[in-house]
Specification:
11% helix, 238 residues, alpha+beta
Length: 238
């Protein structure tokens, strides 16, 4: 039954990517994104073109995976935790969830094994079991942006609020199905991830060699929004 439901959410036909702004500031690393493979995650929960973003300031290196010890770390030890998450365009908030705890990381071999089993169980439940705390915004008719794994108690918007491009929505957290604090971002054609289909997107970004691109960065790419090169953080560039 689970396989049938996932298959039913496979996008039909080709669609041009929707241009949005990067929903964060600073230097981030792309993982599990459509720039490398499609589906990037799974068709279930409209995650066909979803991407995971991990915050890596230049002065901060990534925490290495450990085979045994430490088994886990507290979320506050990761630079992504507490980073502001921004709206990628003008829109209206149509769904939110808060109150899910920010759990310990799963960055050891025993922790990762637990994550695999935990993730399968979470995928069978409601979206808050998978996404943790989240925000869904309607950007245009038939275009909805979803932000998952947000920090508990950090939401700055509520259902019905109108938001502008670059407006702070919440903070990055470690709630839901996560190995470490990061942002899960996706576009979909409806507000309910259990029946919607994923939509492709693109944004402008600058890699560590200061080359500017339009598209989706490949997995492992470090990038920043273009506006940071000019010191202008007032509004995102499309």
């Amino acid at each position: 039954m689970h396989w049938t439901l996932v298959r039913s959410q496979r996008p039909s036909g080709e669609r041009a990517p929707v241009r949005v702004a990067i929903p964060a500031t600073g230097r981030w690393r792309a993982l599990n994104g459509p720039g490398t493979k499609v589906p990037s995650h799974t068709h279930g929960h409209a995650q066909t073109y979803a991407i995971d973003l991990i915050h890596h300031p230049r002065e901060e290196g990534p925490h290495e995976f450990r085979w045994l010890w430490p088994l886990s770390r507290r979320p506050r030890h990761y630079p992504a935790f507490g980073s502001p998450i921004l709206s990628p365009g003008d829109g209206v908030v149509v769904a939110t969830a808060d109150g899910r705890r920010d759990h310990l990381s799963r960055t050891s071999l025993p922790g990762f094994a637990y994550l695999l089993a935990e993730g399968f169980v979470r995928s069978l439940g409601w979206r808050h079991h998978l996404w943790g705390n989240y925000v869904v915004i309607e950007l245009d008719p038939g275009v909805y942006a979803a932000f998952a794994h947000l920090r508990r108690g950090s939401l700055r918007v509520a259902v019905g609020d109108r938001v502008g491009a670059g407006q702070a929505l919440a903070e990055c957290g470690n709630s839901g199905n996560t190995s470490e604090p990061h942002l899960h971002f996706q576009l979909m054609d409806g507000p309910d991830s259990e029946v919607a289909r994923g939509l492709p997107f693109e944004w402008r970004y600058v890699d560590d060699e200061r080359a500017e691109h339009t598209g989706v960065p490949k997995d492992g790419t470090y990038f920043t929004p273009p506006r940071l090169l000019d010191g202008d953080v007032s509004a995102p560039l499309w």
